[in-house]
Records
---
Amino acid sequence: MILDSIQNGFIEQFVAPFLPSKSLFYLYLGSALLISTLTYIWFSYREEANRPDGISKGLWGYIFDKDVWLHRSARQDYIFFVVNALIYHGILAHFLISGHVAFGAIDNGLVFFFGVRTQPFFEPSLATTIAYTTAVILAVDFAIYLTHYIQHKFPPLWHFHSVHHSAEVLNVITVFRQHPVDLFFTGTFIVVLSQLAFAGFTYMTMVKPTEILILNVNVVLFGFFLFGYNLRHSHIWLAYPAIVSHILISPAQHQTHHSVDPKHFDRNFGFIFAFWDWLFGTLYVPRGFEKLEFGICREEPNPYETLSEIYILPFKRAWVELNSSEVRIRSVVAIAASAIVGICLVLFAFAN
């Protein structure tokens, strides 16, 4: 089962343009191309100081700028995409199992604390479907915000996350430039919180909840993918009005997150929604076009020279961090807390 999942997932990575559940689905790429064209037209009428440098290269040169798409960092992205596909879907196979464990644990926990339901709190209806559709996307989005915040603030995890930030140019494949440890960490939180929503609604309605779907994709996620998701990792500047930027993360906001400018450090951790950043004081809203440089920092934008370094160097640097007394104490506390939560989940999962 697991090997089949890995094999099928690996193949899916390369037929993604035909799968609506993938960010590289042709409809999402097509909409990104259309939006890019509109931004080109918009900036063509702006003063040179307030527009991207690539505008002078014409529409084709602006969107498919060879200085971006053929950059050494971009070539790393392409290689990493291929090699990481197998590892990535091996991790996903793990989540197929952990999802069932998480649901069982949460479901048994609800029964333990609140008793066995004999009647539903709410009858399944359009309202509960809308509520669950909203709840599950909020759960996933908050999981991504929370793990992203931790990855930046906890030094050992930062070294794994720095692989993603080491991109010196951004393109649609850069999103896959993630260390397996990063993927595992974020994925675990997503599984637990999304299963919390699923188990909670199952408990309250006594039937498995359903989402509002478009092409078998959560309607909110579908809209997010359709309206500019693939520009988040790109050189195409697309900013939203300030009021919208407090609710939704624009591609420009995520691009500033990748900036080497210290004023952008540890800002805009959100995936879909910006209100997490607003709520926790990590929001940055651009007031106009900003010319950005990307990388980890100005002094060392990309320390990874080879593919092996991308995988191995973060472990070495994380180990050095763990050997410092302050970080070691925080690590022991974090590991102990994780172990306790994990043990509780397993016990509840198999309680019946």
Note: The longest strand covers residues 213-214.
---
Amino acid sequence: MPRLKRSKFMFNHRSKHPALVYDDLGKEYGYISITHSKKTHNVKNIELKENFNREDKLKSYILPYPKKDKKKVFTNEKTKMVIGSKNRRIIEKVKKRPYK
């Protein structure tokens, strides 16, 4: 399956975190998980220059590797999230890495 034409923000009910979904893998989505934590499972997360959610004043992080999960665990995100121009290079670097 091809990559999505536009990335979209969705909520992952398995991880209980928002995710940036960018790849359609048939029955799964390829995504980058978003969090407020500096570390996830003893792995240092990548700090973003600006938060995806403009209303949220906390620092935002993404996992340093993309993941994949079944489509049925995702639902559309209600908040207004956008990828700022300062974060685009960071996001593209993570997208190029292999899935975990």
Note: Residues 10 and 91 are 16 Å apart (CA to CA).
